[in-house]
Amino acid sequence: MFKELQKYITNIREETSAIPEQRKGKLRGIARFISDRFKSGQPAKLTFICTHNSRRSQLCQIWAATMAEYLGLEGIDLFSAGTEVTAFNPRAVAVIERAGFQVVNPGGTNPHYKVFVGKGTKALICFSKTIEAASNPRENFAAIMTCSEADYNCPFVPGALERFSVPYTDPKESDGTDQEAQTYDRRCEQIATEMYYLISQVH
Q1: What does the alpha-carbon distance between residue 6 and residue 2 come to, in Å, rounded to a whole number?
Q2: Would you state the pLDDT for residue 106?
Q3: Are 176 and 197 in contact (CB under 8 A)?
Q4: Residue 184: helix, strand or coil by DSSP?
Q5: 105: alpha, beta or left? (left if phi > 0; alpha if psi -120 to 50)
Q6: What is residue 152's predicted lDDT score, i.e. its pLDDT?
Q7: Dihedral sign, CA of 133, 138, 141, 146?
Q8: Which of 24, 123, 163, 196 is the most buried (most CB within 10 A)?
Q9: How far is Cα 136 from Cα 157, in angstroms, rounded to an integer?
Q10: C-alpha–C-alpha distance, residues 79 and 65, integer Å
Q11: CB 82 within 8 A of CB 51
Q12: Contact 86, 53 (CB under 8 A)
């Protein structure tokens, strides 16, 4: 794992005590889903869902996968999706680069970014897609709603064993303002901290 990314995780993992208890309860619920799947000898699949699959759901997938790697948790498969296709937003890409990831952009209107957590590691392929995309599971997964709008617009997620609502404020609200980078950094830190807590609660 890249040293800068390790340093970032070291800094944020001490912030788990600041997570509100209500959110901790939701995150522990997801951890129980993972633990129960492991106990039954089945892989644990999580799909993070927001409206455009451009910011929050992408950050959740990336950080959950990174924390599983960091904490040595095997057998968990992470995905993300939206209710419509756009693109992994460049501002969200920039914030993970500031956190220490290395990102390769192959270009195109909906780039399939390659996100690396360390030298020689397998890339996470991150791009905007819907729940029905071939790269996402069709059954036996947990649907995690990361925005209120997607939660409202998708009252039923076909194939999901369980559904959890863990919404994050959209950093898009600061796009084009002087606070843009700071807002994205805060949201990235929040998601990283909560994904660390989530993975640490799997037993």
Answers
A1: 6
A2: 95
A3: no
A4: helix
A5: beta
A6: 59
A7: positive
A8: 196
A9: 12
A10: 9
A11: yes
A12: yes
CA distance 182 to 141: 33
Beta strands across the sheet bearing 124-126: 102-104, 113-116, 124-126
The structure tokens listed for 121 are 């590691």
Query: What burial letters (b/e) apply to 60-76, b meaning 16+ CB within 10 Å?
Result: bbbbbbbbbbbeebeeb
- Its pTM stands at 0.95
Distances in Å between the Cα of 196 and the Cα atoms of 22, 105, 106, 155 are: 16, 26, 29, 27
Read off the pLDDT of residues 59-81 as tens digits, 9 standing for 90 and up.
999 999 999 999 999 999 999 99
Q: Residue 38 burial (CB < 10 Å; 0-12/13-18/19+)?
A: middle
* Of 123, 105, 121, the residue nearest 113 (C-alpha): 105
